[in-house]
């Protein structure tokens, strides 16, 4: 390399000295090798002469500072400025920041003469990005240049516009550019079309009114202009192919002309007529003809001709052929063409040129599912490619094999993939490959042993970059088991044995995720391996705990495993050792685990009870209210202990005593009070925090100390890493669709899986000879003799079919799915004005009654969380017939006008939104908020409506598509919120939102941690011209989750005594509130409390926090004060309510 | 096409054009990474490399590498020819182009590129008109 530098250097002076005026083109004498003597030249030369990076940096900094001085000096001429710009561009290219020059680049574009202007524009396009603020300053210049009479200036302006232009300023130049479409010069017309293409990409709705002008451009007499318009059409057809079917004929004609050589010769490229144009057209045709026999019919001829004409042996013809093949396999098939295309692919695959071979493989991968015979024909080549030295060929081959995997060849193919995996280092490739291997292994595993081994390989090779779903799915598979219990145990036992063997190896380093998987499995199932002494396992885990490379998260997993194993052994030295070692660990979570283990091991019976064998799949009912502690508390109170007051309340009381001015307490942090109360006031027995742990390995709960201690809202039956119930549901969602279709595969999200048995069947029907050849070939590969790629066709049954565990959940989900789909149909029907006040009130009352019915009996037995699904289910069941009925009746009305607004309305519609979302009818029955706008951009508007149903808070998010084109795959994603839990999944996908229409989704939300206010944020992603993301946030208050609770005075009395969290507060009543009943009415209306009884100057009220945490309130008036006394099983709830009460009373 | 890079065999960047918006830091990282990947490739291997979710298509002309990043569904061979056509255009404009032309007249190289590819799409496929556009403006300025 150094000699190359030397050579370059030795050449330089000679070249520079010569000052060759340029072997420039023709006689113009214009361009050529000039300017070497300029400052840029000297700069470049001196940089080349430098030897170290450091020196270069110094030189450039020097240069930059001198440039800075020059450009900002007022005396600098434009000519000099131009030169400075060029040097700045150079410095920027070397990676040095030169932002001081940006503004001068814009100035130069504004003021300079032609060449200076050009350099100015160039600098702008290189320096600035689309959203740069300085770009706005350019708009004026562009407008001026567009109006110029000088063609070159117009050209430059159009060029810069099509490269970089602020979206908001499009209207300023759009009319000018539209005019240019009629310009007499074709280059101007072409560039105008390009600029419009750019506008279409960044703001499609701004150019929708000129679609007919695009058509004119398509028919332009100049081929360049026509070619430019194809870009727009390709884009538009990609988004909506059905709207342009009428143009198919024109495209076919154009392609015919191009292929027939009717275009001017200078569009030829290596004597191939306009290849770029051809490929563009082929792509468009492919999109148009997809799944459309009639349209496809039109193009068969021209495709045939394209195939025939492309015969010269040159890259560009191969590129066209490739595109042709692609199109032929995309459109409705025609046998003749397919045969020819297959032949073409053969040419590619067999080519000695590596580039062509690669393309051949790519084409094969694409067509293999339609035409598996093709793979048979090229087996030899495929096998060769598998061991090709070029990784991209190998990867493409694996991709190909991945698509033809079935039960027979899975072993060989996965082996190949694993080999490749071990070689590759790039993270992206590893993640991709690991996902595929895991998918194949799960789908086609021939036996347990192989499955576990493969997964081991995946985990150890994939390291910690593997997608978290992979270990999760794997563990779930183990835990939930299959239909055959015996089989399950074998699988588990094999897993245990293999992990023990792996841990046996001295000094082996395993990725953290793998260790976590191992420890969970060992903890859960090690007792299956009866021949292994638990002590041995414990020793291994213990030694792992001491290793430095094990992260603290993994240690918690291991610790949990130790605990589980310890519950099954009588007494163990290792356990004692672990307890001893970690009781004073610096890591608080470890210390806590050690303590818990210590306490548990002292009480074996409790431990056995807590950690039953193989209970990972059973749901656990957790008494979140800690009611079992009430006796303890009552006893304490009886002995004269002061009732516990949360920290902030104590502070508040102190404050209220101190000063009179501040009536409104500062924003309260209930979350902190929760944890503090958890630790100080209501220390739970250590075992309790394990309750959540024994089910799944809730490493996360253990990880955060506060989490482990407090049990408010313990919906976390499973740890964060493990199986949150909602995660499970998302996994299940796919199952109903996939399992029925032949039980081929367990619902796995991902690529459309190849249909194994079908394929095998097809294979077997035909060519028996080839099979023999194939199997012999694959024996030659040597990895496993019996198995061949194209082996016998017996049905590859799905080995690991997951049992559907939560049928209930599933059902209710289906119902809700149905419900929402039914609801979708109502959407376009506008005009559901908010109910009038009377209706509302009536509604409220009926709701109150319903709520009390469902809740009172619950409260009476335990205060535990009931399963929300079942409740929801019956609720939905009731509603279902209604929605069906109303759906059909609504359909008869068939009011679809809104869907197709008149064209004029479309144009005006940009600013005002004609789309007013309306609640589905069955939700109208509930009390709900008004529909508020959340956010919008120029394609979408989001509206929100809160619906307070009896058992939940429903958030209805309306997504309105303002554009005139349909949007595909709009994703609504909520972020995990601190205080709230969104049931089911955090995401929702609208597969399609039609133009000018509204879709909605509903999410059920619970409050997980009590807080006065909280925010759920999320975003909407959709694919328009680019990935666009619209963010929003929803504010929820505690009151959204409070529902009245109806009960009798006796029940109230009983419950009152059983509750222990007290909060008392006196608040002043304003004169307007006069009597107790008025005050209580205020509370009833504003806070949705239920008035149980009023006796004299005392009143009792009850409410509940969803799903079912009751809170009781006792009020007494005396001398203008209202004494409030709250009681609830949940410590934070009274505080929250008190705060709300204070606010309400002050407001009224 | 997501971006085009021109760099020498010594790994020195000669020209960069981005058709997607990325922060400066990211760009620098990408450039470093890509130059390293491409330079370490064997001569006999194909002109395509997987890179993240994109594909790199590169070709070497004398001491200069031309490298484009494209998406998976794009046509690799065609991209290769795009590069070739660009080189042809340069050649026609400079007359027997060499690396030094591009080093010292990189702004001209940019002009030609802008005439040829806009927003990541090939625009002018006629060699004559592309070069003519540049020459016209060259003439006018004098």
Automatic annotation (TrEMBL), chain B:
Ranges in a coiled coil: none
Top-level taxonomic group: Eukaryota
Residues in AP complex mu/sigma subunit domain copies: 1-139
GO molecular function: clathrin adaptor activity
SUPFAM superfamilies in alphabetical order: SNARE-like (SSF64356)
Keyword Membrane: yes
InterPro entries assigned: AP1_sigma (IPR044733), AP_complex_ssu (IPR016635), AP_mu_sigma_su (IPR022775), Clathrin_sm-chain_CS (IPR000804), Longin-like_dom_sf (IPR011012)
UniProt keywords, alphabetically: Coated pit, Cytoplasmic vesicle, Golgi apparatus, Membrane, Protein transport, Transport
BP-aspect Gene Ontology terms: intracellular protein transport
PROSITE patterns named among the record's database cross-references: CLAT_ADAPTOR_S
Cellular component, GO annotation: AP-1 adaptor complex; clathrin-coated pit
Binding partners and assembly: Adaptor protein complex 1 (AP-1) is a heterotetramer composed of two large adaptins (gamma-type subunit AP1G1 and beta-type subunit AP1B1), a medium adaptin (mu-type subunit AP1M1 or AP1M2) and a small adaptin (sigma-type subunit AP1S1 or AP1S2 or AP1S3).
Name of protein: AP complex subunit sigma
Organism: Calypte anna (Anna's hummingbird)
């Amino acid at each position: 390399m150094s000699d190359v530098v030397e050579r370059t250097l030795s050449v330089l002076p000679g070249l520079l000295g010569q000052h060759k005026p340029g072997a420039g083109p023709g006689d113009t004498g214009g361009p050529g090798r000039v300017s070497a003597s300029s400052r840029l030249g000297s700069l470049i030369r001196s940089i080349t002469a430098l030897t170290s990076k450091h020196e270069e940096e110094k030189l450039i900094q020097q240069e930059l500072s001198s440039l800075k001085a020059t450009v900002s000096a007022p005396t600098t001429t434009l000519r000099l400025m131009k030169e400075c710009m060029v040097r700045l561009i150079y410095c920027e290219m070397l990676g040095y920041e030169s932002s001081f020059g940006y503004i001068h680049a814009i100035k130069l574009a504004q003021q300079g003469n032609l060449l200076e202007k050009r350099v100015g524009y160039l600098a702008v396009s290189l320096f600035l990005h689309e959203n740069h603020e300085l770009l706005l300053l350019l708009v004026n210049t562009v407008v001026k240049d567009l109006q110029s009479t000088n063609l070159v200036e117009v050209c430059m302006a159009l060029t810069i516009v099509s490269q970089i232009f602020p979206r908001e300023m499009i209207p300023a130049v759009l009319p000018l550019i539209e005019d240019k479409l009629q310009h007499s010069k074709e280059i101007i017309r072409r560039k105008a079309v390009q600029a419009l293409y750019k506008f279409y990409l960044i703001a499609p709705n701004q150019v929708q009114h000129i679609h007919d002008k695009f058509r004119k451009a398509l028919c332009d007499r100049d081929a360049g202009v026509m070619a430019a318009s194809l870009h727009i059409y390709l884009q538009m057809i990609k988004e909506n192919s059905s709207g342009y079917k009428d143009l198919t004929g024109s495209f076919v004609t154009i392609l015919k002309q191009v292929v027939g050589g009717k275009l001017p010769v200078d569009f030829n490229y290596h004597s191939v007529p306009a290849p770029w144009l051809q490929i563009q057209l082929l792509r468009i045709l492919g999109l148009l003809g997809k799944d459309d026999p009639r349209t496809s019919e039109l193009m068969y001829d021209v495709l045939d001709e394209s195939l025939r004409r492309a015969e010269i042996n040159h890259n560009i013809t191969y590129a066209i052929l490739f595109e042709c093949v692609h199109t032929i396999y995309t459109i409705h098939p025609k046998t003749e063409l397919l045969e020819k295309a297959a032949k073409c692919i053969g040419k590619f695959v067999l080519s000695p040129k590596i580039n062509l071979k690669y393309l051949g493989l790519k084409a094969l991968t694409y067509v293999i599912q339609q035409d598996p015979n093709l793979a048979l024909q090229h087996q030899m080549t495929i096998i060769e490619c598998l061991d090709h030295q070029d990784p991209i060929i190998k990867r493409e081959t694996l991709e190909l094999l991945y698509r033809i995997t079935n039960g027979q060849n899975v072993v060989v193919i996965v082996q190949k993939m694993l080999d490749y995996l071990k070689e590759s280092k790039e993270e992206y490739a590893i993640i991709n490959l690991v996902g595929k291997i895991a998918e194949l292994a799960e789908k086609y595993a021939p036996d347990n042993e192989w499955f576990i081994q493969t997964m081991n390989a995946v985990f150890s090779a994939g390291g910690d970059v593997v997608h978290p779903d992979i270990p999760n799915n794997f563990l779930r598979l183990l835990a939930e088991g299959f239909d055959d219990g015996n089989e399950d145990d074998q699988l588990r036992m094999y897993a245990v044995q293999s992990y023990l063997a792996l841990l046996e190896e001295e000094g082996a380093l395993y990725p953290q995720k793998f260790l976590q998987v191992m420890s969970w499995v060992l903890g859960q199932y090690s007792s299956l391996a009866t021949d292994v002494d638990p002590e041995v396992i414990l020793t291994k885990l213990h030694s792992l705990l001491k290793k430095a490379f094990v992260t603290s998260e993994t240690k918690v997993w291991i610790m949990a495993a130790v605990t589980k194993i310890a519950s099954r052994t009588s007494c163990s030295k290792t356990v004692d050792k672990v307890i001893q070692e970690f009781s004073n660990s610096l890591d608080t979570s470890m210390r806590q685990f050690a303590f818990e283990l210590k306490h548990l091991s002292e009480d074996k019976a409790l431990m056995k009870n807590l950690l039953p064998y193989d209970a990972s799949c059973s749901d656990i009912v957790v008494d979140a209210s800690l009611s079992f502690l009430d006796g303890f508390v009552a006893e304490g109170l009886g002995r004269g202990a002061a009732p516990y007051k949360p920290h902030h309340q104590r502070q508040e009381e102190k404050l209220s005593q101190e000063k009179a001015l501040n009536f409104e307490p500062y924003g309260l942090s209930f979350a902190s009070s929760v944890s503090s109360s958890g630790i100080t006031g209501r220390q739970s027995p250590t075992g309790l925090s394990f309750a959540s742990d024994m089910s799944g390995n809730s490493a996360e709960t253990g990880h955060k100390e506060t989490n482990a201690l407090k049990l408010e809202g313990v919906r976390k039956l499973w740890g964060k890493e493990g199986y949150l119930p909602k995660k499970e549901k998302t996994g299940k969602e796919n199952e109903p669709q996939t399992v029925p279709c032949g039980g081929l595969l367990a619902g796995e999200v991902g690529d459309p899986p190849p249909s194994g048995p079908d394929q095998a069947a097809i294979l077997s029907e035909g060519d028996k000879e080839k099979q023999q050849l194939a199997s012999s070939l694959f024996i030659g590969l040597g990895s496993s003799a019996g198995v061949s790629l194209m082996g016998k066709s017996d049905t590859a049954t799905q080995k690991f079919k997951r049992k559907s565990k939560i049928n209930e959940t599933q059902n209710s989900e289906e119902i809700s799915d149905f419900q929402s789909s039914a609801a979708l149909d109502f959407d376009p029907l506008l005009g559901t004005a908010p109910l009038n006040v009377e209706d509302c009130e009536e509604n409220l009352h009926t709701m109150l009654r319903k709520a009390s019915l469902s809740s009172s009996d619950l409260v009476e037995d335990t205060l535990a969380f009931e399963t929300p699904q079942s409740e929801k289910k019956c609720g939905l069941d009731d509603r279902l017939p209604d929605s069906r009925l109303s759906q059909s009746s609504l359909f008869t009305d068939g009011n679809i006008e809104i869907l197709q607004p008149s064209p004029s309305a479309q144009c005006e519609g940009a600013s005002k939104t004609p789309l007013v979302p309306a609640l589905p009818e069955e939700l109208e029955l509930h009390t709900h908020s008004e529909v508020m706008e959340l956010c919008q951009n120029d394609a979408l508007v989001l509206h929100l409506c809160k619906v307070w149903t009896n058992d939940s808070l429903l958030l209805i998010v309306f997504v309105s598509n303002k554009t005139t084109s349909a949007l595909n795959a709009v994703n609504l994603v909520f972020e995990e919120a601190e205080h709230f839990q969104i049931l089911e999944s955090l995401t929702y996908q609208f597969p399609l939102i039609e133009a000018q229409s509204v879709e909605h989704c509903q999410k059920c939300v619970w409050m997980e941690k009590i807080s006065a206010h909280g925010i759920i944020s999320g975003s909407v992603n959709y694919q328009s011209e680019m990935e666009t993301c619209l963010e929003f946030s929803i504010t929820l208050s505690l009151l959204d989750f409070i529902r009245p609770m109806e009960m009798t005075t006796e029940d109230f009395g009983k419950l009152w005594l059983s509750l222990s969290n007290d909060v008392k507060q006196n608040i002043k009543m304003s004169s307007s509130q006069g009597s107790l009943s008025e005050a209580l009415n205020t509370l009833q209306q504003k806070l949705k409390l239920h008035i149980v009884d009023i006796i004299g100057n005392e009143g009792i009220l009850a409410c509940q926090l969803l799903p079912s945490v009751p809170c009781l309130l006792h009020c007494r008036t005396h001398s203008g004060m209202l004494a409030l006394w709250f009681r609830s099983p949940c410590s934070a709830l009274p505080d929250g309510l008190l705060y709300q009460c204070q606010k309400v009373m002050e407001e009224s | 096409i997501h971006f085009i890079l021109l760099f020498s065999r010594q790994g020195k960047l000669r020209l960069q054009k981005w058709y997607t918006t990325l922060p400066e830091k990211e760009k620098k990282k990408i450039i470093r990474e890509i130059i390293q990947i491409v330079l370490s490739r064997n001569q006999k291997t194909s002109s395509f490399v997987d890179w993240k979710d994109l594909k790199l298509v590169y070709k070497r002309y004398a001491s200069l590498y031309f490298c484009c990043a494209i998406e998976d569904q794009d046509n690799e061979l065609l991209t290769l020819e795009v590069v070739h056509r660009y080189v042809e255009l340069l050649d026609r404009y400079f007359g027997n182009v060499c690396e030094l032309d591009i080093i010292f007249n990189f702004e001209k190289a940019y002009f030609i590129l802008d005439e040829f590819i806009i927003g990541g799409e090939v625009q002018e496929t006629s060699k004559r008109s592309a070069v003519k556009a540049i020459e016209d403006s060259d003439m006018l300025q004098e």
